[in-house]
Amino acid sequence: MVFAGSSSQSQVLSTLVLSALSLIPHPVVRIAAAVLCAVLAVAHIFIAQRPPTLLVELKAKIEEIEDAIAVARETVTAGNPWLLMEESSALLRIKRSASILRCSLIHRRNVSLMGYIRTWFAISRETRAAQKLLSRVQLVIEADLQRSYSVGIDAHAASHTCHSATCMPAV
After folding, report:
1. Keyword set for this entry (predicted)?
2. What would you report as the CA-atom Rg of the chain, rounded to the nearest whole angstrom?
């Protein structure tokens, strides 16, 4: 039984629940307790992971991507303004999808179970896409940092090469 949340937290909770269930001596009560735990886990997922809550998380992820792209534009793309064009376009598509999902939640207050599940999956899909996009932008930033480190190492090594028989540093 897995609860929503971080992986290690869900593993701890699952272990605690299963170990507590093993302490119940009567098999009928143990099965009833397991069913109750499963129902509570599903209820927790539907309550804690509601579409409006997921949209707030998606909005935070979008803001994080915007900040990362701003940093990348200041540092990385000075020589190449087209470098993050694809990432910027992907961010705009994610923002548009989030806006459409937000409008659908505002428009339909009473959503059927299937509509709820479809919206939940759509928001989760956009959140995964946003996470991938953030990773791509962070990789661009890290690649530029590695390039600048290599330039610094090369410059440092060049300044300490032997220019004469006495191996004096270059001036």
Report:
1. Membrane, Transmembrane, Transmembrane helix
2. 26
Query: Is 0.85 surpassed by the pTM of this model?
Result: no
The amino acid present at 168, given as its one-letter code, is M
Q: Provide CB contacts within 8 A for 37, sequence distance 6+.
A: 1, 17, 21
Nearest alpha carbon to residue 124 among 151, 94, 147: 94
Domain boundaries, the chain: 1-48, 50-171
The pLDDT tens digits for 42-88 are 887 777 778 888 899 999 999 999 999 988 888 876 667 677 889 99
How far are the Cα atoms of 54, 57, 86, 107, 130 from residue 111, in angstroms, in the given order? 16, 21, 35, 10, 25
Residue position matching structure tokens 């890290």: 142
How many residues does this entry show for the chain? 171
Phi then psi for residue 137, to 5 deg, are -65, -40
Contact between 10 and 4 (Cβ < 8 Å): yes
Question: Looking at this protein, which amino acid is placed at residue 122?
Answer: A
Full DSSP string of 121-149: HHHHHHHHHHHHHHHHHHHHHHHHHHHHH
